[in-house]
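Entry 14. Structure prediction run on the chain below.
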Amino acid sequence: MVKIPDEIKEFIETQGIFAVGTIGGNNMPNVSPRIFFKIEEDVVYWLDFFKHKSFKNMQANPWVTISVFNKDDLKGFQFRGKISFITDEPTKSQIKNFIIKKTLKQNSSEKVKKISQKEAQVIQFEPKVCYSLNPEEYTDMCIGSDIDSTQLFQK
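Output returned:
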């Protein structure tokens, strides 16, 4: 796993949102935003309340991309890695409750409150490679990896 530097964790927390890119068995890509999440040193957790396209894609293909960007600073990061579904209790409930409490503290809109009351799947993402999305940098060169990134998506 790639260790997520504190600077990048803070960046993601400050943005309050990231996009998750998936590809399913039909090879159709999907991108969806996430605001219900928790970042640790080498893992990102998020909640899936809807179990639509992204969820189905992740069931078929555990490789996903997370992307976060600040349009004002033209700064961002991309992580590629694998997900797994957290199903064991009480771990699932502990993570879910932490994420919901944190998110509601940051965003108390009625829509977010209503979503938070739904049943959610807890997704665990383990980053394998990290890239900068800053236009001034070489964005095709990884800034952190625990694997040979040229072989990342080859079968």
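The helical segments are 6-15, 53-60, 91-106, 110-116.
Filed with the rest of this week's runs.
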